[in-house]
Amino acid sequence: MDGVLTINKPSGMTSHDVVERVRRILHEKRIGHTGTLDPLATGVLVLCAGKATRIARYLEAGEKEYKAIMRLGVSTDTLDAEGRVLATMAYTPPGMRQIIEVMKKFTGSIMQRPPAYSAVKVAGVPSYKLAREGKAELLKPRLVTISGIELTGFEDPLVSLLVRCSKGVYIRTLCAEIGDALGMGAHLAGLERTRSGSFSIDRAVSLDQLQAMMTAGTVEHVVTPIDDALAEFPSVLISETETVRVMHGNAISCPPSLANIKSERVRLHSPAGRLLGLAHIVAGALKPELVFS
Q: Which CATH superfamily hosts domain 3-62+198-226?
């Protein structure tokens, strides 16, 4: 099976657990995800099956959207509800306007430090393993983009947020930093990813639904073809001669129609409409970056 699946991940499972379950359901060893979710989190987990594993890095780069619940007044070592409580603070509940003003400070391109309990590796060892042993190191901040944070509800001590951001953003860290900026601490109490790139929660299926569809022989209804999964990249139809060159990894001339294109990459299609792969636009040429045999 070659294609992309949008799974509605349940709480309590790791992303790896979901991948292993889908491998068993589909009888397909080649399954990979395009961005992890913590065990606490639910929602969109995009999986690539078969040949689609080769496009995972392109899908992973898409913007993410999350519904988050932040609890004020309590800080934990993991920055979420599963961690050990480090501090509980008495506070006067902030007004919604105050929360909104603080959130504005965390939008745009910002530097964010990954939490100690994360999969970021330190000298080849995942940081969370070091943290569990009491050997956590302060991780280096990374440049990330948070394009928007909306306050969707507030019933003290719980604050509901809608966050749109780039890959690499830790919503746990965001909640903790907002809590610190408010002067009362906070942690992530609940998280649902509602979108990853073009894949949204309304198209996601549960693991039980996937199993039922596999049994019924209708699983193809929820598999997005590779070509469709890459639809954000403009399509270019090339000649038979150019197809041969591309299949051997050689660059071809960039057609005039792409002169003003904003995308750095395009999909290449044969005269028959078959997806050949992706090409990078470089100095007036289309250089094959990914080719399907």
A: Pseudouridine synthase (3.30.2350.10)
Residue 149: burial class (beta carbons within 10 Å; 0-12, 13-18, 19+): buried
Q: Please tell us whether the domain made up of 233-291 is placed in CATH 2.30.130.10.
A: yes
| d(C-alpha 293, C-alpha 291), whole Å | 6
Average pLDDT, stretch 150-172? 97
pLDDT in tens, 39-70: 999 999 999 999 999 999 999 999 999 999 99
Topology of the domain covering 64-193: Pseudouridine synthase (3.30.2350)
Q: Which of 2, 17, 38, 156 is the catalytic position?
A: 38
Answer yes or no: same fold for 3-62+198-226 and 233-291. Answer: no
End-to-end CA distance of the chain: give it in Å, rounded.
15
pTM equals 0.92
The answer to whether 2 is a known catalytic residue is no
- In Å, how far are 17, 173, 189, 273, 275 from 117, measured between CA atoms? 18, 11, 16, 47, 41
pLDDT tier for residue 126 given thresholds of 50, 70 and 90: confident
